[in-house]
Design goal:
Residues 80-155 form the RNA 2-O ribose methyltransferase substrate binding domain. By secondary structure, this protein is an alpha/beta fold. The chain is 39% helix and 16% strand. The chain has 12 helices and 11 strands. It has a 7-stranded parallel β-sheet, sandwiched between helices. Strands 1-4-2-3 form a 4-stranded mixed β-sheet, sandwiched between helices. Helix 8 links the parallel strand 5 (172-177) and strand 6. The chain starts with a helix and ends with a helix. The model has no long low-confidence stretch (mean pLDDT 85).
């Protein structure tokens, strides 16, 4: 058998070693390390929330530093309310006055009425500097007047129903789901006072509490609109449902528009979630109906207090039309 001897020496096409990549592909396949946490990524919403928390923490530290530089020392378990209107509204509600701090014109009509009430109660009246009052309250717009009062006294959620019954009114309760900004709580109380709300329901944790900021933002409405504070919001909502209330939650993605709400004349609980996060899952599942407020496409969402105010206005209008 004839064999081609030259075939043994020929190199076969496509076989044998190839030109290397110089390690470039190997470097490209290397891992890029662990994924950064959401709050460390500048484009993530969690990063913005982290920045906001850090700013608020810095403000709290600054306020604490200021309080250490003032001659006004507020006892534990007491609150300092400042501003002519908030102070006057608190005094008009019959609140107990511990001390009055004056750094402005005592002849002002509202200031004079506060001083008269303090004298009647036997409360101490102290003159101070505007800087002392500013440092003690953390507010620059204190208007030269402040009062030291006991901490706000909350009611129970059952008390809100009793209040509505005593006043022969259909219950209209506002529930706040993890709304932590006291400015929002104060604004909600102000809207509640304007549109006939029975009261506001908050939780002990992850919720703003009634403090000096709330007194000021509410323009005194906190003295007229009771606030109930409970441990568990879901359980409280279920208790209200068992008592005959309907629970509606405000959410931008709901199928039912506020304008088409048919439950306005029923005993009602309006639940507003935190700005950004909205209603929590369990609270949402507890609601009888999720309702949205029609807004322009140019705006992504509404502030929690603004949304609550709009809802209360619409409900009050529907109730007035049926009365």
């Amino acid at each position: 058998m004839a064999v081609d001897g030259g075939a043994r020496g020929r190199k076969r096409a496509g076989k044998g070693p190839t030109k290397g990549s110089g390690g470039q592909r190997r470097r490209g396949l290397r891992g890029k390390g662990p994924t950064p946490r959401a709050e460390d990524r500048e484009y993530h919403v969690a990063y913005k929330r982290k920045q906001e928390r850090e700013v608020e923490l810095a403000k709290q530290r600054q306020r604490e530093a200021h309080r250490n530089r003032t001659s006004i020392k507020i006892a534990r378990g007491h609150e300092l309310i400042v501003g002519r209107n908030p102070v006057w509204e608190a005094v008009e509600s019959g609140i107990e006055i511990i001390r009055v701090f004056i750094a402005g014109d005592p002849t002002d009509e509202r200031v004079a009425s506060v001083l008269r009430a303090a004298s009647t109660q036997g409360a101490t009246i102290m003159e101070c500097t505007r800087r002392d009052l500013e440092n003690a309250s953390g507010e620059t717009a204190h208007q030269g007047i402040g009062i030291e009062v006991p901490e706000y006294e909350y009611v129970a959620v059952a008390d809100l129903l009793q209040i509505a019954q005593d006043e022969f009114k259909t219950p209209l309760i506002i529930a706040l789901d993890q709304v932590t900004d006291p400015h929002n709580l104060g604004a909600v109380l102000r809207s509640g006072g304007a549109f006939g709300a029975t009261g506001v329901l908050i939780t002990e944790r992850r919720s703003a509490s009634v403090n000096a900021t709330v007194w000021k933002v509410s323009a005194g409405a906190v003295s007229r609109v009771p606030v109930a504070r409970e441990t568990n919001l879901v359980q409280s909502l279920r208790a209200l449902k068992e008592a005959g209330c309907f629970v509606i939650g405000l959410d931008g993605g709901a199928d039912v528009s506020l304008r088409d709400l048919e439950l306005a004349n029923e005993p009602l609980v309006v639940v507003t979630g935190a700005e950004g996060k909205g209603l929590s899952r369990l609270v949402r599942e507890t609601c009888d109906q999720i309702v949205s407020i029609p807004i322009s496409s140019a705006v992504e969402s509404l502030n929690a207090a603004v949304a609550t105010g709009i809802a209360l206005y619409e409900i009050s209008q529907k109730r007035a039309a049926q009365s």
